[in-house]
Amino acid sequence: MHMGADITKIDHNDGICARYLPNRISMTNDVSALHLVLSGDAALFAIVRLSLYVSLSAVVLAALIGIPLGAWIALTRFPGRQGVIVLLNALMGLPPVVVGLAVYLALSRSGPLGAFGLLFTPSAMIVAQTVLVMPIIAALTRQTIEDLWLEYRDELTAMNLGPLGRVAALIWDARFSLVTALLAGFGRAAAEVGAIMIVGGNIEGFTRTMTTAIALETSKGDLPLAVGLGLVLIVIVIAVNALAWSVRRAGERLAG
Amino acid sequence: MNMLTRRLLIAVTASFAFGGHAPAQDKSIVVASTTSTQDSGLFGHILPMFKAKTGIDVKVVAQGTGQALDTARRGDADVVFVHARPAEEKLVAEGFGVKRYPVMYNDFILVGPKADPAGIKGAKDIVAALRAVKTKGADFISRSDKSGTHQAELNLWKVAGIDIGKDKGPWYKEIGQGMGAALNTASASNAYVLADRGTWLSFKNRGELVISVEGDKRLFNQYGVMLVNPEKHPSVKKDLGQQFIDWLVSAEGQKAIAGYKINGEQLFYPNAGDSGA
């Protein structure tokens, strides 16, 4: 069989980029991802929605654990605290593929949490990303709260709040700065592919996200579509950041 | 935190935890399969037909054959659909697979640069071609990921009388990745690589790569399907899984497989009737 330029060209027009998305769209140029966006492709939007659902859920869960934990470490003195801070900072660099593997082994039917049947579901992806994001939010919260504490220690001591009251007061005081910690966590989650690929399985229409779709298209050799999806992802991340920034600005104005 | 903020936070959290996604569909199975069946587009072609007939959603996790078999062993899939017969028979012998059914075959091809540094283009003898690659020290990309294609490659070196573990040189690059990544690497470095025809036909980043060797019967690539044993893993959906297997080997499923073409070229040849396959 001869693989001439003709066949390659036909192949491109009738390729997987159209096939992996249920509704077939003819691709006439290399900005095929742009086509998908402009034509309101349902499968692409489902992928975008799942990406946001997984990453934002992970950030919310990680914040619920990480912010109180970070604040508590900032305000409490206990033996080995320096070590805990170093560890927490180091965990910001957890390799996603290692977290993915650990969560995979835990959630596998043969693992300790296998009975829940969570492997290869969006929930498994949320668990893995929560593990990745939590140390980032906790470590950044710790630093922010500790700095505030050093600044307002006298006032807070004079107000005679209990330890819990102090934690709550400082978190409330730092709420606008903590948005940055949440965004750092979101950035990590949205950019990550190693963990969700392993625990989600990249199942079409079920656990396929922007990043795993990009990895898949790259492996199929459809680099233009992969780059196009990458640009869409970057635009989404910028949009989320812009939204968070506006909310923060509006909040600051309201708070005076 | 005031009451309103608190309520808002609870509402947002709840909507993330419970909203957005309906509870898992009642009729679905997980199939651990290979990158070649998914990347070639075969599943995209046949699964909608199966779903239309039975209402069963098939969730495909595409892995290398080695990893897919491990996923089955751990009980994380209901059905496993791969291409490495000895490893499949081992799975059944260990009791993790119920019964192996032959489904279809296609073939491997040796892909290489147009410039053909090993001088093998158009050869019909894969074994002689591999010997030439080694003698000339032409760059060769090995999947090295325990996939079906990797196991086929290792077997071909063995048939060629080359102990690749010992005889490999800097020309032999073990990348430990999937078929697409191996083709991308070969395309970028003008190297030879063993590929399955399905992935090659749908691969778009060919660069200078062309088919160097094809048509040797030792390049035959048989696919088999197995239900994961519910006695080992009670979570296996045995009825739905068996329904999928029965459909694949039925006249209807076999016709669906034969009907999948890229540019008029058939990618997989059904042979469920061949009990020796």
Automatic annotation (TrEMBL), chain B:
<protein>
    <submittedName>
        <fullName>Extracellular solute-binding protein</fullName>
    </submittedName>
</protein>
<feature type="domain" description="PBP">
    <location>
        <begin position="24"/>
        <end position="252"/>
    </location>
</feature>
<dbReference type="Pfam" id="PF12849">
    <property type="entry name" value="PBP_like_2"/>
</dbReference>
<dbReference type="InterPro" id="IPR052738">
    <property type="entry name" value="ABC-Tungstate_binding"/>
</dbReference>
<keyword id="KW-0732">Signal</keyword>
<feature type="signal peptide">
    <location>
        <begin position="1"/>
        <end position="24"/>
    </location>
</feature>
<dbReference type="InterPro" id="IPR024370">
    <property type="entry name" value="PBP_domain"/>
</dbReference>
